[in-house]
Structures are given as structure tokens and as C-alpha cells.
Amino acid sequence: MADLKLEREFPTSPEILFAWISDGAKLLQWWGPEGMHVPEHDLDFSRLGPWYSVMVNADGQRYKVSGQVTHTNPPKSVGFTWGWHDDQDQRGAESHVTLRVEAAGDGARLVLDHRDLGDDEIAANHNTGWTSSLRKLEAQLG
């Protein structure tokens, strides 16, 4: 199984960064790669339980992903399962995401761990998507 780990530093407090990775209204401002919008969702990583989002690109292609929020530990971390849906809305292989926040100098560091991604090609695709999404978060907090 392939894993992915990304780190970014932000010029804000750990508490504010945690709000951006857990609060649904803030998540929607950076969730999904650049060029995508999220017209359908239940994004709230501040509580345990189910979540989902449907991302749509400029061509109208829909990408649904869902899971369960497995832990929330403000202002340090949230964890959730992740599974893409196919065209018949059947959920595929499950992977696991942890978003961890820690103090870093005058700001805060976000550590994104996405585990159990299958093979290297799947991990590379997720690296591209998460990197694009994190650029959107950097734009919000920069």
C-alpha cells in the first residue's frame, strides 16, 4: 500500500488553521483541486460521523468521495476515511486521511497523511489533487 505525506506552513495560529480544516464553511473554500466546485456535500470534520462531497469540474464531470470522520482532537488533528464512488455510486477502496496541526515558528504547520492508497499511481493522483487543494488553502491564509 502506498502512502502520501504533505506538509505546509501557514502564517496563522494553530487554532485558526484547525478551523480551516474542520469547519464545513471554511473547508468548502479550499476543498477539491483548482477548477473544481463542490455543489453537494456534507463536509464537517468537527464531529464524528459520515461525510461526503461531490466535486464537479468545468466539463461537468462529477467526482464523489465519502467516508467517516474517525476522530477530532481540536486544535491538533482530525481523521477520516476516504473512498471514491464510481458512476453507479458504488464506493470503492477505502483509505485513511489524518490532518494534523502543530505550531511552527510564528505560524502553524499542516501535516496531511493519506494512507492505504493502493499503488504508486493512485498515490501520485492523490498527491496532485491534495497539492492543488492546498494551494487554494494557502491563498486563503497567505
Automatic annotation (TrEMBL):
Gene3D superfamilies: 3.30.530.20
SUPFAM superfamilies from the UniProt entry: Bet v1-like
Domain of life: Bacteria
A Pfam family it matches: AHSA1
Segments forming domain Activator of Hsp90 ATPase homologue 1/2-like C-terminal: 12-141
Similarity comment: Belongs to the AHA1 family.
Protein name: Activator of Hsp90 ATPase homologue 1/2-like C-terminal domain-containing protein
Taxonomic classification: Bacteria, Pseudomonadati, Pseudomonadota, Alphaproteobacteria, Rhodobacterales
